[in-house]
Amino acid sequence: MLDNQPRGTIVIEDLEIGLVRSLKKEITTRDIELFAEVSTDHNPVHLDDAYAADTIFEGRIAHGMLTAGLISAVIGEQLPGHGTVYLGQSLKFLAPVRPGDMVTAEVEVLDIDYSRRRVTLDTRCLVNGKPVLKGEATVLAPSAKFD
Length: 147
Description:
Layout: E1 20-26, H1 29-39, H2 44-47, H3 49-53, H4 64-77, E2 85-93, E3 102-113, E4 118-127, E5 130-140
Antiparallel strand pairs: 1-3, 2-5, 3-4, 4-5
């Protein structure tokens, strides 16, 4: 389930520092299984209840990069949106995401270099209002001058 944030492209000429976009998605067992299949990461902490129960997480968790993928969805669909090119992303994983967790992925404009079309974004994911992931992305934003 995604929330009702506007979708589409915001060209660099219309971006402003402090602009925020987000999405919400419940992470399901099926999401985790599909991510394992696509990524080929079959670590049992993600897929095996009995194994995961004996880890520091005391239960199954989603892949960190599955959670990070929600940041990519906000960037690619909303801020700046279609036509955006990812240049870099730092990530810090702060807490596990479990099957059934509702994750809110947020992206906020921190800095804009109009001459180079570079945008620096604060990126974060939250579960129940608590950060589970934070980072910073650099993107090449679409421009009205280069359609």
